[in-house]
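Entry for uridine-diphosphate-N-acetylglucosamine complex. Fields follow.
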Amino acid sequence: MADARPFHWEYDAPAVAPERFLVTGGSPLEGTIRVSGAKNAALKMLAAATLTGERCRFTNVPEIEDVRAMTETLSDLGVVVDHPAPNTYEVSAGDVDWLFVPLEAAAKMRASFMLLGPLLSRFGEVVISNPGGDRIGRRPVDLHVDAMRALGATIDYRYGYYYAKSNGRLRGSEIRFPIVSVMGTENAMLAATLADGQTVIRPAAQEPEVDDLIAFLQKMGADVERTYPDTIEVNGKRRLRGAEHSVMPDRIEAGTFAIAAGVTGGHVILEGTDCDTMNALVEVMGNAGLSVSCGPGRMEVDARGLGPGGIKPVDVETGPYPALATDIQPPTTVLLTQANGDSKVHEAIFEDRLEWTGELAKMGARIDLNGPQRAIIHGPSKLHAATVEISDLRAGASLILAALAAKGTSSIGGAHHVRRGYENIERKFLDLGARIERVQEGGSKPA
Ligand code: UD1
C-alpha cells in the first residue's frame, strides 16, 4: 500500500451548514411523484464496483448526500468516478493506490464499511475505520469482522481502525451469522465473489436490496445465487468484469410518501415502484383503513374522506425482511398518532429507534414508552406546530410528515440528516401541494 498520504488518528467533525425545514401543515397531499433509486442498494453497488478494474455504470442512482460521500471516499482511494448525467455514475477501479478508509468517511456514513469485503478480497489488505463505537453511536460491526475471519483474513483492531489482511486469496467458507444482518450479509457476499472456493452464507438477509446487489454481481460475472430464502451461495472467481445496472426503486422513500397521503388525508400516486417489496407496509396501511392499490410500476394510496379519527389503530412490529422494515417504523408511528385508539409499536431491530418520539410528543403526540423498544401510541392526537430537532435520517422524514399533519408552521432543525437519504425531498413534497421550504439557520434560503 502506498503510504505517502497523511494519516489522521484524530478527527474533528466538520461543521455542517445548519439548515431547517419550515413546514406549514393542515392540508391534504395530492398528486403523483416518481420514486428514486434505492439508497441501500446504490451504496453497496458503488462499493462492489471496486471488485473489478473495469468500468461499471449505474443508472437510477439517487442524488443524495450518502452517495456523494461514498463517491468521494472512492475517489480518495484512486477510483475514477464520473457523473455524466443526473442519476448516472461510472466507476473505474483500475488504479486503486490507497487501501485506507479514514474516519472522515466512516463518520459521514456507516455504509463506508461496505468497502471492507471488496478491497480485502481483491487487494489482500485494507485499513478501515470503525463506523460504530462511541464516536458515532452504538452500531457494532462484529458480524462483518467475524465473516472476514471465517474467510481466512487476519484482522487486528487498533485505535479505532481495523487492519485486515489476507494471506493470498481469501478462502471460501461456511459463514453462520448469529442474527440476520443486511450489510453483514452483503460484505461477506462481496468478499466471497473473489475468494478461492465455495462460500455459504446463512442466515442471509432477505432484503430486496441484497437481491438487487446479487443481480449486479451476476452481471459482473460472479457466481452468486440465493439458493434458499435464507441462504446465499457463492463460488469465487479469479476476476470479475465491468457491468451496467439500473438501481431498484427505494421502498423506504415510497413508503414515506405513501404514509404522507395517510397522515394528511390525501391521495398520492407513486410511479416507478410497485408494492411487491412492500407487502408488510401495505398490510399495515390496509389494516389502518387506507385504500392502497398496486399495479405494475405504480402504487396509489387514498385516504380522502376518512375524516378525523377515521384511521384505525394497528399493532406493529419491525423485523428483518419480509417483516415491516425498521426504516419505515418512524413514519408508521406518525400515521398511528392519527388512529382512533391505542396502537402498540415494537421496534425489534434497533434499541434507540424510538428516542425521536420525544420530538414527536412536542407536536402533541401522546406516546408512552415501555422500555426503549416498545411504545404505545394513543390516538387520535391533534398535532400542532412546534420547533423540533432531527436526530437521524428516518426520524427527520417522519417529523416532516407530522408537521404536514399539524396546524401551523413547524420549524425542523437538522435538515442535513434527511438530505443524506431522500433525493430532493422538498421538491417532491411541493409537487404534492405541501408547503415546505429549507432555510439556513437565521432564515435565508440555502444556495
Ligand atoms: C441496514 C440498512 C439500514 C436498516 C438496517 C436494518 C444500509 C446502508 N442500511 O443497516 O437502513 O435500518 O439494515 O434493516 O443498508 N448488528 C450487530 N453486529 C453487526 C452488525 C449488525 O450486532 O456487526 C446488529 C445491529 O445493531 C442491529 C441488527 O444487527 O440490531 C441488524 O442490523 P443490520 O441488518 O446489520 O443493519 P445494517 O446492515 O447496518
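NOTE: The longest strand covers residues 19-25.
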